[in-house]
From TrEMBL, chain A:
Keywords: Cell cycle, Cell division, Metal-binding, Mitosis, Ubl conjugation pathway, Zinc, Zinc-finger. It comes from Australozyma saopauloensis. Pfam families: zf-ANAPC11. One of its GO terms (biological process) is cell division. This is Anaphase-promoting complex subunit 11. GO terms for cellular component: anaphase-promoting complex. Transmembrane segments: none annotated. The keyword Disulfide bond does not apply.
UniProtKB/TrEMBL annotation, chain B:
It comes from Australozyma saopauloensis. GO terms for cellular component: anaphase-promoting complex. This is Cullin family profile domain-containing protein. One of its GO terms (biological process) is metaphase/anaphase transition of mitotic cell cycle. Belongs to the cullin family. Pfam families: Cullin_AB, TPR_ANAPC2. Gene3D superfamilies: Cullin, Chain C, Domain 2. One of its GO terms (molecular function) is ubiquitin protein ligase binding. Residues 432-609 form the Cullin family profile domain.
Length: 126, 630
């Protein structure tokens, strides 16, 4: 007997490649789910991996976090400076751009504060 | 001690005997006496059939005048005369009534009354005495005629003939003061006739109009006898035929009430009957209407309880009957109040049925009446005529009307009338239904990769009905399927197609994806390639294959023929082991080389043996057949 496989219709699930956690630290929804402001998981609600730290968030969640000036551009979990690993083709370009802009503005703010601190420090000490 | 004295007419009579006219002649008189003449002429006091009235001589007229000059004497004389007649009646009339038919009784009554009236005319009585005589005479007749036999005769007469004969008999009975008695008889006979007619003619006749023919029958066949029987001219009014018709309608409602459940079961062909019930209820007087409506509700509920709402009837049947009930009772009572009342026990019972949800879901999705007994749900879903759920009264609505007066406090307008709504509101939560839909669609979407169009349309209809936001999960599932097909086109593997699921959104998949079952697939190479392509197309993501799901088309080429099978991946994997290999394989070998569990392996092998592809050669060893025989 000879066996020819004519057609194979399989079923698979997709998963974000993440290190450890399963849940977004901000919205507490699984990474493979969608953030509270989205309707569909996956392409339209991508996951952003932290470069400096190992924490990952939904793009929209981290955007909301970074939009607050009080976040100071830090990771909400470990308080390190948050920088995103941008993968090609992940997330809408404008949202990625917005993310990078926010990161930049926070960096600028931090640098200015550092300069200010350095300048004003002697007065404080005095 | 002396025995108790029992008072009886006989005893009393023995003490004070009735005085009759003959008592006036106890003493010997002159034979030429006026009184003797008169009394002699007045005899006999009872006229047997065939006997003739003897006209009085002038001498007797004069004697009567002479004797009965004084008014007081007249009254006393009448008393005595009546007593004399009473004695004769007791002797003759009682027996006559016993022995003869109604018609001859009537004739005898007529003859007697005529006889006594002519005698009375000769006596030249004053008005008071004349009235007394007439009254007493009637009173004499009545006890003899108020017998079961006469009543029976009357009933018979009224049932059979409507002609002048019957009228005459009734007249003669009425003339001797039997009118009230005849009225009761006539009324009871008429009632019985109408009732019999309604119950024999219209029972089970639900698909043609009955009301008009009933009215006609009452007016033509019943009313004339009825009116002849009810002599009292005060009560005869033009409306009395309407009253009879009304009565007949009440009987019709009683009949319909008793067969309500069967009518509902045969809902589609009893529409006319329902609208007639509606008409009858609407035209009845307010008091009877309330009573009839209450009775209808009670009767229907008890019929439902004994015929439908028990363990013997399956859920689909109950749902079907509930839908029928909704349709039927909305015809009977368009306000929905009756429906609201009768639906409550059904809904309460339906709540206890666990399989309600799954039947509802299946029913709503399959519009084919042959495969789906609940196809009406599906068509209702597809019609989708203005589904506006107004849970709260709109206070600015200028056409607002209060709830009907007999509605229960938690009556909801429109809530009961729409049967999709009515059924889904039985469920404690809409989410239960949505979950069931999601489950069903999960299976459908994975199975049917071709006719997705239909599924999408169904989902759109459900959204229109139950609200857009309820189906978020389903939306994700549909998008997964759509995206997968796009992705498959992009990757363009001719052999392998994958449906890629968002694992958190597919019921039953989320558990599967956690399982770590490995299967050594024959298409592992293609799968790896597919995964790599996926990784490139969708950065940052990887695939996890679910070997227990999907379908495979395999073609088995035998020596004599080739045959295609549509099988599961594990079945395909097992049969692939026998590819161009005629050596037998043991169960253990198969299990080890596929990675299936022992149990799953034996199941799969069992499947292929049943298909006639493998054969068991003993000691748990199997071998592919060389020629396929089917």
């Amino acid at each position: 007997m000879k066996v020819n496989i004519k057609h194979w219709h399989g079923v698979a699930t997709w998963h974000w490649q993440t290190q450890n956690d399963e849940l977004c630290g901000i919205c507490r929804v699984p990474f493979d789910g969608h953030c509270p402001s989205c309707r569909y998981p996956g392409d339209t609600c991508p996951l952003i991996l932290g470069k400096g730290c190992s924490h990952n968030f939904h793009l929209h969640c981290i955007l909301k976090w970074l939009e607050q000036s009080s976040s100071k551009g830090l990771c909400p979990m470990c308080r390190q400076i948050f920088t995103a690993t941008v993968l090609e083709g992940v997330g809408a370009p404008d949202e990625i751009a917005q993310l990078q802009e926010l990161e930049n503005s926070h960096r600028v703010a931090r640098e200015q504060a550092e300069v200010g601190d350095a300048y004003e420090l002697p007065n404080d000490v005095l | 001690m002396a025995p108790n004295v029992v008072l009886s007419p006989a005893l009393m009579k023995s003490i004070a005997p009735t005085q009759v006219l003959a008592d006036l002649l106890t003493e010997p008189h002159d034979t030429e006496n006026d009184l003797t003449f008169l009394l002699h002429w007045l005899q006999p006091y009872y006229l047997h059939p065939g006997e003739e009235y003897v006209a009085p001589l002038a001498r007797i007229r004069a004697a009567a005048k002479q004797c009965l000059r004084e008014p007081v004497v007249q009254l006393k004389f009448v008393d005595l005369l009546v007593n004399s007649i009473a004695v004769e009646f007791q002797l003759h009339l009682q027996q006559f009534v016993q022995e003869n038919l109604l018609l001859s009784i009537c004739q005898q009554i007529n003859a007697l009354t005529a006889y006594y009236n002519r005698q009375a005319a000769v006596l030249n009585l004053s008005k008071a005495a004349g009235d007394l005589f007439q009254r007493s005479l009637k009173a004499l007749f009545i006890p003899y005629l108020l017998t079961p036999k006469v009543k029976q005769g009357l009933v018979h007469l009224l049932h059979t003939s409507v002609g002048d004969n019957a009228m005459e008999s009734l007249q003669s009975f009425a003339a001797v003061g039997m009118a009230p008695f005849i009225q009761t008889v006539v009324v009871s006979v008429t009632t019985e006739r109408i009732q019999n007619y309604v119950f024999t003619t219209f029972a089970g006749v639900w698909d043609q109009p009955c009301l008009a023919s009933l009215q006609q029958w009452v007016r033509i066949n019943v009313y004339p006898t009825f009116i002849a029987g009810v002599f009292d001219s005060f009560e005869i009014q033009s409306s009395s035929s309407n009253d009879l018709v009304q009565f007949a309608q009440d009987k019709l409602i009683n009949l319909r009430t008793s067969e309500m459940y069967d009518m509902v079961v045969a809902c589609n062909r009893s529409t006319i009957a329902f609208s007639e019930v509606h008409l009858c209820l609407a035209t009845g007087s307010p008091t009877t209407r309330t009573l009839q409506r209450a009775r209808l509700v009670d009767a229907f509920i008890s019929q439902c309880n004994s015929k439908l709402l028990h363990l013997g009837s399956n859920t689909v049947k109950i749902i079907v009957e509930y839908i029928n009930t909704i349709k039927a009772l909305l015809i009977v009572d368009p306000t929905g109040v009756l429906l609201d009342k009768v639906a409550r026990p059904i809904r309460k019972y339906l709540k206890t049925r666990r399989d309600l949800v799954s039947h509802l879901v299946k029913g709503m999705l399959d519009p084919n009446p042959e495969t789906n007994r609940l196809y009406e749900l599906a068509s209702a879903l597809r019609d989708n005529t203005c589904h506006a759920s107004t849970a709260i009264d709109d206070l600015t609505d200028i056409h607002w009307v209060p709830d009907p007066i007999d509605a229960l406090p938690d009556f909801k307008k429109g809530k009961v009338s729409d049967f999709v709504d009515a059924l889904t509101s039985v469920l404690p939560l809409l989410a239960v239904l949505i979950d069931e839909f999601t489950k069903l669609f999960a299976v459908k979407l994975l199975e049917a990769s071709d006719n997705l169009r239909e599924i999408f349309e169904d989902v759109e209809k459900l959204k229109l009905r139950f609200g857009q936001s309820e189906f978020a999960t389903l939306d994700v599932m549909i998008r997964d399927v759509e995206e997968s097909s796009q992705l498959n086109q992009k990757i363009g593997n001719p052999l392998l197609n994958l449906t890629i699921l968002s694992r958190n959104y597919w019921p039953s998949v989320s558990e599967l994806s956690n399982e770590n079952d490995t299967l050594n697939l024959p298409i592992q190479e293609e799968l790896n390639q597919f995964s790599r392509s996926f990784g490139k197309l969708k950065q940052g993501r990887h695939l996890k294959y679910l070997p227990s799901m999907g379908q495979v088309v395999v073609e088995l080429v035998f020596d004599n023929c080739s045959k295609e099978f549509n099988v599961t991946p594990s079945q395909a994997t097992v049969v692939e082991l026998f590819n161009e290999d005629d050596d037998p394989l043991s169960l253990l070998t198969i299990a080890l080389s596929t990675g299936l569990s022992n149990y799953a392996t034996s199941q799969t092998v069992e499947f292929w043996i049943k298909q006639g592809v493998l054969e068991d050669i003993g000691q748990q060893r199997y071998k592919a057949v060389s020629t396929y025989t089917g």
